[in-house]
Amino acid sequence: MVTIIKTEFVKLKRYFIIWIGVSLMLLTVLLTLFTTMADDGMVWDFQFLFEQVVKNFVTMIFPMCITLISGYMISREYTDGTLKNIETLPISFQKLLAGKLIVSAVLSLFLGAVCFAFTVIANFIMGYDGFALLPAITGLVQMTLLGFFLYLTMLPIIVLTSRQKGSFLVGVIVAFVYGFIGMFANGALQSIYPVTAALGIINYRAGAEGIAWNIGLCFISVLTMCAVGIALMFIKPKTQEKEI
User: Fold this and answer.
1) Please, are residues 175 and 59 in contact by the beta-carbon 8 Å criterion?
2) Which of 3, 17, 201, 214 has the fewest CB atoms below 10 angstroms from its CB?
3) What distances in angstroms separate CA 145 from CA 53, 57, 109, 140, 241, one per listed residue?
4) What separation in angstroms does the CA of 241 have from each of 229, 235, 238?
5) Among 227, 103, 74, CA closest to 165
6) pLDDT digits (tens, 9 = 90+) for 47-81
7) What is the dihedral of CA 11, 13, 17, 22, to 10 degrees?
């Protein structure tokens, strides 16, 4: 497994898809800054900027971003023709998939940190007040973990759409809709809906009053999606079944 993971990281150096992921993290911040043009009387500071970036990160950009990257990594095995020869190697499709998903998990942490870095840069460029070291460290930890937990909620989509060549693009669309629906989750539903439940795990506070999260329910929601994704890993793709 260690060899598979190392190989996947080496492959990433040849893929442009990582730069797309970084660009999407920048887009998340730029999209948030665009809303500052609205004359709604809101006073922007670092904390408020961070909260707004998190909203767009969760509901607009990251779900489709991590699904795109993970799906692309898996799809390369089809386009490169390596999946057809998998039976001649001492490795199963499930093990290969697991290695790719572990790498994707690491990337989810990385992209969360990148998005936070862009947020800090944007804060200084815009000249907002309220930046302090402790809140910044807290925000970095929150957004990094948020990327990972959101990735776990996307696992069923990523694994299910890895069944056939090119189907990961459908997964990207589904992931976008899946994340966007989270924008409308309110009350207790926020702790149940997997995408917004990830916010509860990091104890996200939207505004001065914050949100009443059911942390236990949030963990159950996210871990359930993770378990479903892992279970789907043991379903062989149609390509492999036909060859057997």
Assistant:
1) no
2) 3
3) 15, 12, 6, 9, 37
4) 20, 10, 5
5) 74
6) 889 999 999 999 999 999 999 999 888 887 776 65
7) 140
